[in-house]
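Protein: Peptidase S14
Species: Caulobacter radicis
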Amino acid sequence: MTMWLSVLIAFLGMTGPASLDRETAIIEACRTWSRSSDNQSQPVRQIASDGLCFSGPINDETSAAFVSALSKFEPSAPVVVVVNSGGGEINAGMAMGEALIPLQTTVVAQTVCASSCANYLFTAGDRRVIDDDALLLFHGGAHRLDEAQLRKAIAAQVAAEQVEAQVAGVRAGVQKQIDRQDAFLRRAGVDVNFFRWMAGFNDLSEDGRLALCPTPDPVMILYSDRLLATHGVTVDASRGPRSQAALDAAVRALGRSDAVCFMR
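Structure follows.
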């Protein structure tokens, strides 16, 4: 930001992203908090007047606590939100992301931000940061199901005359999630086909998948900053793994053995 832009913003009473010094201080405070026992009883902690930490699974309860905590911040004031989560329920994650969008946020992925955390919290930030050795992991969002497989699974559990009604109910529920997800992505400035693009990976041949992703049958994928940017998910500061070897080492350092892939 130039000196003249800073002066103009101050003159107009506008605010920009939190200063890098404040960002660093809040990141470190959240790191300390997430390593303490406090975060076991409360998944959300307002660490400063301009900082919020979230650590834990994403479900209805933690989502409500997060949204409530965000409501205490002024929309015009910059806030740093540090998130550490393996993910969870789609609708709960979308509610959290929807609450982030109206604010001026720097969202920081710390340690692990996977699944719904990556999908809906990280993407909602105005400024997006991947902390030291943090894993930003995706495995897709809401998408249409293979109805032949769905029908077969339902038929094994209910009477034949109930199958089509059950399939229709699931179809309607999934479409509602997709519509909400599309609206969220538009508001976040992200490619509305981001998750459709992800789902296309599974339609490739085995050789096609291995050409893009050296890990067979990955549970999660870490996309390069370049790939994310092509879909509108700009990473403003990236201090996470940038190769398959670095990703594997980071996963081992967490005591995990998940099959994860680094996709360039």
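Remarks: Residues 5 and 38 are 41 Å apart (CA to CA).
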